[in-house]
Amino acid sequence: xxxxxxxxxxxxxxxxxxxxxxxxxxxxxxxxxxxxxxxxxxxxxxxxxxxxxxxxxxxxxxxxxxxxxxxxxxxxxxxxxxxxxxxxxxxxxxxxxxxxxxxxxxxxxxxxxxxxxxxxxxxxxxxxxxxxxxxxxxxxxxxxxxxxxxxxxxxxxxxxxxxxxxxxxxxxxxxxxxxxxxxxxxxxxxxxxxxxxxxxxxxxxxxxxxxx
Length: 212
Fold this sequence. Notes:
- The chain starts with a helix and ends with a helix.
- The longest helix is centred in the last third of the chain and has 62 residues, at about 150-210.
- Helices cover about 40% and strands about 35% of the residues.
- The protein is flat.
- It is α+β, with helices and mostly antiparallel strands and about 210 residues long.
């Protein structure tokens, strides 16, 4: 693969991750005992913060109802190595956060925890907003705490954005290196497989000839 193609591959992957990072707020319906998981591609040393809140939906009356006190939410996160880093049980609304130690696909799972069975026709509605990197910073609070002017705050935001972009680029470069290594292994296997078959056939013929 040529240098220009490599650069386009890295840039394309980075832009996809960058754009998808802004589409993280959503809601979904869940049945009792059902689990919903999200896969987030996260660079190493990146803060991930999620907010969620729950409602009930009456399918017969087609209306949303407030969540009952006995409705909780189990939140778990796993690293690319399937290591559990966030086992937690929370109430009808809450926040979770963790910092990634390695780059790769992190799995975040949510599951309703209900002490009493739901009435017929009711489902759980979960709203969740997952943010990572510099989007987790509360710059209004940072400005008050550090007594920053508007210009200083803007410089701080740009610095954080540049650092996040650098992390994303490093991650995409590593993914590209893994892809190239895999592609090289496949090419070598394609090259050697016919030779191995020929050697096997020759050895087999020699063995049959000697046996006769």
